[in-house]
Amino acid sequence: MSETVRIDVWLWSVRQTKTRSLATNECKAGHVRINGNVAKPSSPVKIGDEVRYRFQGFDRILQVTRLLTKRSSATQAQACYIDKSPQRPKVYIPVFTRERGAGRPTKKERRELDRILGRNSNYGHMG
Q1: Is residue 126 scored above 60 in pLDDT?
Q2: d(CA 96, CA 117)
Q3: Is the CB of residue 57 less than 8 Å from the CB of residue 38?
Q4: What is the distance of C-alpha 120 from the center of its chain?
Q5: pTM as predicted
Q6: In the chain, domain spans
Q7: Is 3.90.650.10 the CATH classification of the domain at 5-83?
Q8: Is the pLDDT of residue 87 over 70?
Q9: In DSSP terms, which residues pair with 63 in a beta bridge?
């Protein structure tokens, strides 16, 4: 087996992207780095490299432990890297709830809902 693999093939093989073309596009867009350097789709990755790529607005940091060129099972794919990504921050989103069948919201409840949704509660008023 070869000692290096294309980064787009490796990302697809270890199930970090759904398709190889998506992995290629991620590389072209500059979202993938190998050892701190921006990676082109054909950039070689080898065992011991640190691969960083942007996923849903956060960086995933993977240390390569095995090379794959074919997509395989999820358990085999997870054995090919060590995930060193920091824990994602927990975001608290306030939720406005009302009892079902409780009727129309009161003026106070409507203003609270507007505040949570970021709407202007003064609509419909002259002045």
Answers
A1: no
A2: 9
A3: no
A4: 32
A5: 0.67
A6: 5-83
A7: no
A8: yes
A9: 50, 82
